[in-house]
Amino acid sequence: MTAVDFITMLFCRVDDEIGDRAKHSQGKLHPSEIVTIGMLFALKGVGQRAFYRWLVANHHALFPNLPSRTRLFRTLKVHRADAEDFLAAPSLLGVIDSYGIELIHPRREGRSEQQIGKKGKSNHRWIVGGKLSVVLNHLGQIVDWDCDTANVYDGSAFQRLVDNFKNDMVIFSDTGWEKVDWHPTNLRICKRGEWNVRMLVETVFSMLTRICHTKHMAHRIWSYFESRLCYTLCLFNLLLDLQGLEPDHNGFVALSIADFDIL
């Protein structure tokens, strides 16, 4: 599959889902084009300037009405809600976990008053950045998500993700979600080595790291950071759907998006 074939296929799937959305009277791009570009930005995994140079140099013919770089990324931020149509439906059982994202090197902490990241621990080391939390269904698809700075405690900052599904899902988590004054009936705290099917979420985080390069970002404004995460997670669900969620003879569904790392 060539890059052009992939972009065309991606646009068709996006347009099938949100093609009925009206284009802004002063806009140059249709919402389907905007969401497609946002997902390409997430898959490319580079900064805004590098992505815009790549898009103009290689695929301007596919998006002839492309606006200027700054206007494009403001548009992506506004239309991120359209991409959330690709979040998956909840299932009876689910998993929740968090993932640290480094925005600046720890040695640079405090040098700018506009710093958006905070210092926290991720994978047993200090980072300065943000924290992403996701809820997965039994197939590994992303059902909901939220983000905060890296210094927050999971059980305090992301309670909404569990409470939203109190009538829909039983959600399994590690001990990082224990909190004295918060005991949702649908949350199951698992100790180390208990119900290891939870490791599905580590597989998802690994794919996001290797394919979408989400472990390190360079955003300086929080709303653009949220926008990038939104497009990344919705792209992940769409790529899983394109790959096919077919179980093997043991009923195991293998997750992979490596075939789409072609940009």
Folded structure, characterized:
About 40% of the residues lie in helices and about 15% in strands. By secondary structure, the chain is α/β, with parallel strands linked by helices. The protein folds into 2 domains: about 1-85 and about 220-263, no CATH class; about 95-220, Nucleotidyltransferase, domain 5, CATH 3.30.420. Strands 1, 2, 3, 4, 5 and 6 form a 6-stranded mixed sheet that branches. Helix 1 (about 5-20) crosses helix 2 and helix 4 packs across helix 9. The chain is globular and about 55 Å long.
Task: Indicate the low-confidence ranges by residue numbers.
Answer: none
Mean pLDDT: 94
- The end-to-end distance, rounded to whole angstroms, is 11 Å
Strand content: 15-25%
Structural class: alpha/beta
Number of strands: 6
Binned, the helix content reads 25-40%
Domain tally: 2
Task: Give the SSE order as H and E letters.
Answer: HHHHHEEEEHHEEHH
Tell me the radius of gyration. 19 Å
Q: How many H/I helical runs?
A: 9
The rough form would be described as globular
Biggest sheet, open or closed, and with what strands and sense?
A: 6 strands, mixed
Short description:
This protein has 263 residues and is an alpha/beta fold. The chain is built from 9 helices and 6 strands; from the N terminus they run H-H-H-H-H-E-E-E-E-H-H-E-E-H-H.
Spell out the blueprint of helices and strands.
Layout: H1 3-18, H2 31-44, H3 48-59, H4 69-78, H5 80-83, E1 93-104, E2 118-122, E3 125-136, E4 142-149, H6 154-157, H7 159-163, E5 170-173, E6 187-189, H8 200-212, H9 222-243
Parallel strand pairs: 1-5, 5-6
Antiparallel strand pairs: 1-3, 2-3, 3-4
Helix pairs in contact: 1-2, 2-4, 2-9, 4-9
